[in-house]
Protein backbone atom coordinates (compact mmCIF):
# COMPACT_ATOMS: atom_id res chain seq x y z
CA UNK A 1 0.00 0.00 0.00
CA UNK A 2 0.87 3.67 -0.14
CA UNK A 3 1.27 6.10 2.73
CA UNK A 4 1.20 9.83 3.35
CA UNK A 5 3.80 11.59 5.45
CA UNK A 6 3.41 15.13 6.81
CA UNK A 7 6.15 17.72 7.18
CA UNK A 8 5.31 20.62 9.50
CA UNK A 9 4.40 24.11 8.43
CA UNK A 10 6.10 27.08 10.09
CA UNK A 11 2.72 28.64 10.79
CA UNK A 12 -0.13 29.90 8.66
CA UNK A 13 1.97 30.01 5.45
CA UNK A 14 0.41 33.17 4.02
CA UNK A 15 -3.06 31.63 3.81
CA UNK A 16 -6.35 32.46 5.47
CA UNK A 17 -5.41 36.01 6.43
CA UNK A 18 -8.90 37.46 5.91
CA UNK A 19 -10.14 34.98 8.52
CA UNK A 20 -7.08 35.50 10.75
CA UNK A 21 -7.47 39.30 10.77
CA UNK A 22 -11.08 38.86 11.90
CA UNK A 23 -10.29 36.19 14.48
CA UNK A 24 -7.39 38.08 16.07
CA UNK A 25 -8.77 41.63 15.59
CA UNK A 26 -9.01 42.32 19.34
CA UNK A 27 -5.42 41.33 20.11
CA UNK A 28 -3.64 41.49 16.78
CA UNK A 29 -0.49 42.87 18.36
CA UNK A 30 -0.03 39.89 20.69
CA UNK A 31 -0.41 37.53 17.70
CA UNK A 32 1.75 39.60 15.35
CA UNK A 33 4.86 37.45 15.63
CA UNK A 34 2.92 34.25 14.91
CA UNK A 35 1.03 35.81 12.01
CA UNK A 36 4.21 37.18 10.40
CA UNK A 37 6.25 33.97 10.50
CA UNK A 38 7.73 33.38 7.05
CA UNK A 39 6.44 30.46 5.00
CA UNK A 40 8.68 27.40 5.26
CA UNK A 41 10.22 26.35 1.97
CA UNK A 42 10.76 22.66 1.30
CA UNK A 43 13.20 22.70 -1.63
CA UNK A 44 16.26 21.33 0.22
CA UNK A 45 14.19 18.70 2.03
CA UNK A 46 12.67 17.48 -1.23
CA UNK A 47 16.01 17.58 -3.06
CA UNK A 48 17.65 15.50 -0.29
CA UNK A 49 14.90 12.92 -0.10
CA UNK A 50 14.37 12.51 -3.86
CA UNK A 51 17.94 11.23 -4.23
CA UNK A 52 17.13 8.16 -2.13
CA UNK A 53 13.38 7.69 -2.04
CA UNK A 54 10.82 7.03 -4.74
CA UNK A 55 8.18 9.69 -4.19
CA UNK A 56 4.81 9.28 -5.93
CA UNK A 57 3.73 12.89 -5.38
CA UNK A 58 3.97 15.95 -3.17
CA UNK A 59 1.15 18.21 -2.03
CA UNK A 60 1.87 21.68 -0.67
CA UNK A 61 -0.83 22.36 1.92
CA UNK A 62 -1.95 25.94 1.35
CA UNK A 63 -5.38 27.56 1.22
CA UNK A 64 -7.83 24.69 0.87
CA UNK A 65 -6.05 22.67 3.55
CA UNK A 66 -6.29 18.90 3.28
CA UNK A 67 -8.20 19.11 0.00
CA UNK A 68 -4.82 19.81 -1.64
CA UNK A 69 -3.91 16.14 -1.08
CA UNK A 70 -6.73 15.05 -3.38
CA UNK A 71 -5.08 16.78 -6.35
CA UNK A 72 -2.19 14.30 -6.36
CA UNK A 73 -4.24 11.12 -5.89
CA UNK A 74 -4.81 8.78 -8.80
CA UNK A 75 -8.42 8.12 -9.80
CA UNK A 76 -10.10 5.39 -7.76
CA UNK A 77 -8.28 6.28 -4.54
CA UNK A 78 -9.02 8.10 -1.30
CA UNK A 79 -7.09 9.01 1.83
CA UNK A 80 -7.61 7.80 5.40
CA UNK A 81 -5.93 10.39 7.60
CA UNK A 82 -4.87 9.70 11.16
CA UNK A 83 -5.27 12.35 13.82
CA UNK A 84 -2.35 14.63 14.70
CA UNK A 85 -1.70 17.29 17.31
CA UNK A 86 -2.28 20.78 15.93
CA UNK A 87 -0.05 23.70 16.89
CA UNK A 88 -1.83 25.98 19.37
CA UNK A 89 -2.45 28.91 16.97
CA UNK A 90 -4.65 26.70 14.79
CA UNK A 91 -6.60 25.51 17.83
CA UNK A 92 -7.04 29.14 18.86
CA UNK A 93 -8.50 29.96 15.42
CA UNK A 94 -10.85 26.95 15.68
CA UNK A 95 -12.05 28.11 19.10
CA UNK A 96 -12.41 31.83 18.33
CA UNK A 97 -14.08 31.32 14.95
CA UNK A 98 -16.19 28.41 16.28
CA UNK A 99 -15.11 26.32 13.30
CA UNK A 100 -15.93 22.66 12.79
CA UNK A 101 -13.08 20.25 12.10
CA UNK A 102 -14.00 19.88 8.41
CA UNK A 103 -14.12 23.65 7.99
CA UNK A 104 -10.80 24.23 9.76
CA UNK A 105 -9.07 21.42 7.86
CA UNK A 106 -10.20 22.74 4.47
CA UNK A 107 -9.31 26.36 5.26
CA UNK A 108 -5.88 26.28 6.93
CA UNK A 109 -2.86 23.97 6.81
CA UNK A 110 -3.35 23.03 10.50
CA UNK A 111 0.38 22.53 11.02
CA UNK A 112 0.93 20.45 7.87
CA UNK A 113 3.05 22.30 5.30
CA UNK A 114 3.87 19.49 2.89
CA UNK A 115 2.51 16.00 2.32
CA UNK A 116 4.59 13.30 0.68
CA UNK A 117 2.85 10.37 -0.99
CA UNK A 118 5.02 7.24 -1.25
CA UNK A 119 5.04 3.45 -1.17
CA UNK A 120 4.86 2.08 2.37
CA UNK A 121 8.03 0.09 1.55
CA UNK A 122 9.89 3.45 1.38
CA UNK A 123 8.78 4.56 4.86
CA UNK A 124 11.68 2.98 6.79
CA UNK A 125 14.19 4.59 4.43
CA UNK A 126 12.41 7.94 4.78
CA UNK A 127 12.49 7.63 8.57
CA UNK A 128 16.22 6.91 8.56
CA UNK A 129 17.03 9.82 6.22
CA UNK A 130 14.84 12.27 8.13
CA UNK A 131 16.47 11.30 11.42
CA UNK A 132 19.94 11.78 9.88
CA UNK A 133 19.02 15.23 8.56
CA UNK A 134 16.86 16.26 11.55
CA UNK A 135 13.76 16.68 9.37
CA UNK A 136 10.61 16.59 11.48
CA UNK A 137 7.77 14.50 10.03
CA UNK A 138 4.98 12.17 11.05
CA UNK A 139 2.81 9.50 9.39
CA UNK A 140 -0.35 11.22 8.20
CA UNK A 141 -2.35 8.38 6.73
CA UNK A 142 -2.75 5.84 4.00
CA UNK A 143 -4.05 5.76 0.46
CA UNK A 144 -6.87 3.29 -0.17
CA UNK A 145 -8.92 2.19 -3.17
CA UNK A 146 -12.24 4.04 -3.27
CA UNK A 147 -14.82 5.16 -5.82
CA UNK A 148 -14.25 8.86 -5.04
CA UNK A 149 -11.26 11.05 -4.27
CA UNK A 150 -11.98 12.06 -0.67
CA UNK A 151 -10.11 12.32 2.59
CA UNK A 152 -11.50 10.82 5.78
CA UNK A 153 -10.58 11.47 9.39
CA UNK A 154 -12.08 10.46 12.71
CA UNK A 155 -12.94 13.89 14.12
CA UNK A 156 -13.56 12.47 17.63
CA UNK A 157 -9.98 11.15 17.68
CA UNK A 158 -8.76 14.51 16.40
CA UNK A 159 -10.62 16.31 19.18
CA UNK A 160 -9.35 13.90 21.84
CA UNK A 161 -5.74 14.30 20.72
CA UNK A 162 -5.87 18.07 21.26
CA UNK A 163 -6.59 17.74 24.99
What's the CATH H-level homologous superfamily?
PurM-like C-terminal domain
CATH architecture: Alpha-Beta Complex
How many domain modules? 1
Give, in order, the helices and strands. Answer: EHHHEHEHHEHEEH
Query: What is the total tally of β strands?
Result: 6
Order of strands across the widest beta sheet? 2-4-1-5-3-6
The residue ranges in which pLDDT falls below 50 over 5 or more consecutive positions are none
Query: What shape does the CA trace take?
Result: globular
Number of helices: 8
In round numbers, the mean pLDDT is 96
Task: Report the sheet with the most strands, covering strand number, pairing sense and barrel closure.
Answer: 6 strands, mixed
Radius of gyration, in Å, reads 16 Å
Q: Which structural category do the helix and sheet elements fall into?
A: alpha+beta
CATH topology, what is it called? Phosphoribosyl-aminoimidazole Synthetase, Chain A, domain 2
CATH class designation: Alpha Beta
- Give the percentage of residues in beta strands: 15-25%
Distance between the termini: 31 Å
- The helicity comes to 25-40%
What does this structure look like?
The protein has 163 residues and is of the alpha+beta class. The protein has a single domain (2-161), classed as PurM-like C-terminal domain (Phosphoribosyl-aminoimidazole Synthetase, Chain A, domain 2). It contains eight helices and six strands. A six-stranded mixed beta sheet has the order 2-4-1-5-3-6. The two termini are 31 Å apart. The model has no long low-confidence stretch (mean pLDDT 96).
